[in-house]
Design brief:
alpha/beta, six-stranded antiparallel beta sheet
């Protein structure tokens, strides 16, 4: 079967793709930037990549005609530029029009539970997208999910940040809102189960786990699984804006995503009864079991996808390819080199940089820089990395984005997503003479950018010299 998978670099798509390939399907992945999609890790001739931006109708001409099923997994809630509702509407219209020109028999859409008269902006947008997709000439199957629990999911990581960092929480009143979380494994079960299942055509289904609880109970039950004692107090006067800042500074989420999450968390998200479990033979796992499964992935260093990889800074919205060529003119540089004895050992250190490993030297200064970035509205250091040993182009690495990760060429190139008066790159490369090259490049924006470079120059000398020494040591 030939399947079109949109949102190919997104959290759910990266989980769904290997399952579809294991079932013998041929999958065409739609991505905005093919440089962010690592097709090599799937090791299959059954996956191909089409570069398409559904916000731009003119980029959709390469979508094959002979498609059987299309998955619509495109969301824009984390964007910090423009109106995400308008973006999602335009994307859905362009998708519908493009797919109608193919032989697609079924479209499968993963949406959010919409069972209240007064919906958040996020859920209203999801419902609007569903209506647009339903007007197509194919059969539509909509799966409506609430909180998704799995390693690397936004909800799981936010809950984890709150529980593991705060022994005592003074929390907003939306923690009393009932919800029905679902394990990411079950989301994939449903997405594959309805595939060309004609009994599900032109129907929508709420999908969730067996447990109904409020957000406070979710936090406390998470703490119990982790063996932690936590106390939570509810404050009725915390405003939505203050709640958003509360999430933004304590967790790794962006402020724009925090705003939309707070808006949605005021809405009750409970599944309406349907016969989908019986129809597909699925038994949803409990909330606690979903947490255990998530940590099993984390402990084994086998997190297949992370919501942080799908979220990029405004600078990279046009794709990472345009930044893979490091500029020379009008830039400042910190260039350091050192002879090394064991290139493979050094390369392992380079490939493990950031996240739990840290930056090898002056980590306290990196943490201060990350906190400062948060104060300025940036991503900060809390994003970490999803895998401590492997890394691919397009992935998030603390407040950097990986542009090139080529082990054969022994080269790692990072682009800064922190708030800066300019653009910054950090590159590690080992040449044929076993010399480690470490280069920091900064392209300033106006006078402020130049003042910034000279103000941090003493710290660069301290940090970059020590970092190179620690990475290169025998």
């Amino acid at each position: 079967m030939k399947i079109l998978l949109t949102g190919g670099t997104g959290y759910i798509a990266q989980r769904l793709l290997p399952v579809l390939l294991d079932k013998g399907h041929q999958v065409i992945c739609c991505v905005r930037d093919r440089k962010r999609f690592n097709s090599e890790k799937y090791g299959s001739g059954s996956v191909s990549v089409v570069e398409a931006d559904f916000l731009k109708h003119g980029t959709l001409s390469d979508i094959p005609i002979d498609i059987d099923v299309a998955y619509y997994l495109i969301h824009s809630m984390s964007t910090s530029t423009g109106d995400f509702g308008e973006m999602e509407e335009l994307s859905a219209i362009n998708f519908r029009d493009a797919v109608q020109k193919t032989k697609t028999r079924q479209v499968i859409y993963l949406s959010g539970i919409v069972n209240e008269a007064k919906l958040s902006k996020h859920l209203s947008s999801r419902l609007n997208v569903e209506k647009i997709l339903a007007s197509g000439s194919y059969a539509l199957t909509t799966l409506r999910a609430g909180i998704i629990i799995g390693s690397g999911s936004a909800s799981f990581e936010i809950i984890r940040d709150l529980v593991e960092k705060l022994p005592v929480m003074i929390a907003p009143r939306w923690l009393k809102t009932p919800t029905q979380p679902i394990a990411v494994r079950n989301v994939i079960d449903y997405l594959t189960g309805v595939l060309l299942n004609e009994q599900t055509w032109n129907n929508s289904y709420d999908i969730g786990g067996p447990d109904i609880m409020n957000y406070k109970e979710m936090l406390l039950r998470f703490a119990k699984v982790r063996g932690l004692r936590r106390r939570i107090g509810i404050v009725p006067v915390m405003t939505p804006k203050l709640s958003s800042y509360w999430l933004y500074f304590i967790t790794s989420t962006s402020y724009s995503l925090a705003q939309n999450l707070v808006d949605s968390m005021k809405v009750e998200v409970i599944c309406r009864k349907n016969n989908l479990n019986e129809l597909l033979g699925i038994t949803p796992v409990s909330y606690e079991e979903a947490i255990w499964e998530a940590f099993e992935r984390i402990v084994l260093n086998q997190v297949p996808s992370s919501w942080k990889d799908a979220m990029t800074s405004d600078v990279l919205d046009k794709g990472i390819s345009r930044y893979a060529e490091v500029p020379v003119h009008g830039c400042y540089f910190d260039i350091r080199e050192q002879q090394i004895g064991d290139p493979e050992k050094v390369l392992e250190r380079v490939w493990a940089i950031g996240g739990a490993t840290g930056w090898y030297y002056g980590d306290w200064l990196w943490r201060i820089r990350g906190f400062t970035d948060k104060l300025l509205g940036g991503v900060g250091l809390r994003r970490g990395r999803k895998n401590q040993n492997e890394i691919s182009a397009g992935e998030a690495l603390d407040f950097w984005r990986v542009l090139i990760a080529d082990r054969k060429e022994k080269r790692l190139l990072l682009f800064a997503e922190m708030k800066l008066p300019g653009e910054a790159w950090l590159e590690f490369r080992i040449d044929d003479k076993n010399i480690l090259h470490q280069t920091a490049t900064f392209r300033p924006l106006g006078l402020l950018g130049r003042l910034y470079w000279y103000s941090v120059l003493p710290f660069h000398g301290f940090i970059f010299r020590g970092m190179l020494r620690e990475i290169a040591k025998n």
